[in-house]
Amino acid sequence: MGDIDLSSMPTYKSTDNLMAEPSSPSESLSPNDIDDRFLALPEGIDLALHRAKVWSKYTKDVIAYIEKRAQMDAEHSRTLIKHAIQMKAILKEESFLPFQSIYSTAVEQDIENGNSCLATCSLLLGHKFVEPMTARRADHEKTRKQIKEMWTRELKRMHEAVNNLRKSRALYVTRQQELEKARTGLRTSESGADWSVEKIDKKRRAEEEAGVRAREAELHYKSCVQEANYRAAQLQTVKKDLLVRIRELLSACETTIKTATCSYFQLCHVVSAPLPVQLQSLSESVRNYDPGSAYMEFVKRLPEPQANQTKFTFQPHITTDHDSSESDSNSSSPAASPPTRGPTSGLMSSGDELETDHDFNSKQSFS
């Protein structure tokens, strides 16, 4: 794998390279501009609600990551502290070993940093991150679902008004056609050669009844038109109100995640900031160490050597007179057996015999 070209890396900005056509960096939209853009789109509410749902999932994933990371860091810190305490006792068993004090300092720092990490993890799992983010997400989901239900209910009313309008218009057209047909029949009967009073009265009553039904259908149609217009206007009003609520909801959520994220990185900085300084200091201490100095310190504390040294001398063997007479008698009697020396032998040592190892060691201990 090749080296990473840092110059080609994008800047760390939350929205960089995420949109197909990013807006100009200098462009800034007011809250009303944001609402108006969504309001002008037929699917504006759906887009805003979808964005709110995306935020909810994103927040859920972030919370899960921070929570899992804090748990892993806490478990690692507990294991490290336990291991460091054991090593601390081992380092005290002997003295004058190379880098012993440095490793003792490193172990102490591991214990201190581990405790600091445990405290930080407890804060992150508590009121500094997980708790406020979880509470905000729960409130966000509740409000989002309420907004969605309100919009769905308003859309249903609008659809019902449009359906009623469509049906009332169809009925209005039918009644108008019936009225035209009744009027045509009446005119035909009045101008016909076989007209009669009864027939004309019947046609006239049919025409009047058709007129009544046509007027009723017209009134109902006009009423449905008014209802549809009212629902359309009401839909726009509700849409605008809901868009404002969604924008304010997301703004409040982003305020919460901003505070929590700032706390997260600040706590991470508090934990990790001492490490570079500590490691650099330990590295400098190791670099300044003179190899062999620990062994020299050990030798300097040994007891002073004694001035007198033990000298070894040659001690020749000297034969006594008694030993010479025994040697002559034994040599004159070849068949005689050598005398057996009993446990109560009367022979006394002259002190000139060769010394045994035991005697030599005994003398050495007293010299």
TrEMBL record:
Keywords recorded for this protein, A-Z: Coiled coil, GTPase activation
Chain spans, region Disordered: 317-367
Entries under InterPro entries matching the protein: AH/BAR_dom_sf, F_BAR_dom, GMIP/FCHO2-like_FCH, RhoGAP
Pfam family, one: GMIP-like_FCH
Domain F-BAR: 27-294
Gene Ontology terms describing biological process: regulation of small GTPase mediated signal transduction
Domain of life of the source: Eukaryota
Record GO terms (molecular function): GTPase activator activity
The protein's name in its UniProt record: F-BAR domain-containing protein
Organism (species): Medioppia subpectinata
